[in-house]
Inverse folding.
């Protein structure tokens, strides 16, 4: 039996990068996965890959900047599987380096809506089910960038700092209901989003970057029974990009 046998997991931003790695890892561990992203073809491909493992998967095309889409994710998951055990708030916009003075206000709002507000509203949407069942595991994917500000990264880092605070706040609210809420703060990870935002060739250019699967392995631990002592915590997973290494 896998570590997540028969658990029902929602993973946002699951068409690529950390989200895809997380969805596939959960499937391998026995979970039934609701994979969401904005691109239908890409998210269906991930769901198909999980099905080829012999596990159930549901692909939901959704835009986390739209509250109606957020509500639909929860509704479709409940309609298909009857409950929600796990939520991974991973979807995020990684904007290029832009100083605040030049930041387009529309883009600022979009980053806030997807990275932070979307995570909060989807958490709100799944909590009634988790509270009723007295069980739940929620992980917010923040960033090393949530720990400190940086030049030209204001919008992204504000949202990631907000996710850390959201994690602590919600964890305090729901612990009595048997729900654990944690946060992962990855360092540099070789994802498509990272390559696009920074014009990078990934690990080929910077061997210190982690693989998405390394973060997924941590995610499996945090949503498994082995992590029962951990809640309200932001776990730094900086890998080779840890600032202590210089």
């Amino acid at each position: 039996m896998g570590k997540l046998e028969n658990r029902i997991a929602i993973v946002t931003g699951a068409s690529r990068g950390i989200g895809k790695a997380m969805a596939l890892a959960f499937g391998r561990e026995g979970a039934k996965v609701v994979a969401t992203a904005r691109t239908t073809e890409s998210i269906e491909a991930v769901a198909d890959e999980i099905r080829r493992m012999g596990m159930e998967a549901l692909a939901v095309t959704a835009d986390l900047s739209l509250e109606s889409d957020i509500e639909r994710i929860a509704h479709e998951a409940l309609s298909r599987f009857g409950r929600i055990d796990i939520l991974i708030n991973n979807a995020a916009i990684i904007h290029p380096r832009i100083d605040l003075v030049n930041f387009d206000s529309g883009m600022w709002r979009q980053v806030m809506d997807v990275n932070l507000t979307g995570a909060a509203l989807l958490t709100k949407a799944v909590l009634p089910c988790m509270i009723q069942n007295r069980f739940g595991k929620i992980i917010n994917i923040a960033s090393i960038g949530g720990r400190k500000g940086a030049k030209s990264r204001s919008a992204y880092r504000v949202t990631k700092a907000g996710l850390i605070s959201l994690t602590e706040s919600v964890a305090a609210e729901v612990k009595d209901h048997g729900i654990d809420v944690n946060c992962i703060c990855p360092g540099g990870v070789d994802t498509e989003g990272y390559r696009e935002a920074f014009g990078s060739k990934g690990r080929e250019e910077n061997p210190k970057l982690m693989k998405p699967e390394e973060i997924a392995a941590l995610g499996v631990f945090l949503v498994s029974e082995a992590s029962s002592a951990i809640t309200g915590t932001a776990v730094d997973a900086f890998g080779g990009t840890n600032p202590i290494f210089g």
